[in-house]
Amino acid sequence: MELILASGSRYRREQLARLDVPFEVDPADIDERAVESPSLPELAIELARLKARAVAARRPGVWVLGGDQIVALDGVEQHKPGTFERACAQLEGLQGRTHELLCAVALVGPEGQERAELVRVEMVMRPMSAGAIERYVRRDSPLDCAGSYMLEAGGVQLFDAMRGDDYTAIVGLPLTRVRSMLEWAGLFGDDV
Fold it and tell me: pLDDT tens for residues 16-28?
């Protein structure tokens, strides 16, 4: 049975490859800003589902894995900054504070089966000067990253602590949950 990753993210692709399950990549094309939900955790799950469903609709007969990640500060979503100035401003607002990373994954099957999971990670960002923030943004250029940081690069230095039950969720795919979902789907057995 074929598995498709509904994401163009090279980080998610690299993560999924760690599970040693064959898969293809077919990025979903949905308008994320048009999706509404009563809460940010529900929004993350709905976006992951919509991405998986969109690819499943054009690729019948396969399993499709979709994912989404939301950075939330005091219940407000922190979007991708897009510019150097907005990235610096976003990090200025996050520095010295605790925010939440919501990582959702959804698996859609060839017969309409669906399973979705959410992992929450509490992110404790250290206090930083404006100069340190600017140097970091120049270094990693996280302009297409929610929260304006890249933990898979130098962004790990911005934090004092990260608390959650699956550290891989920080990069984009909570691999412990994904493995369980793929096992549920029968895409591999219980051997390692």
Answer: 999 999 999 999 9
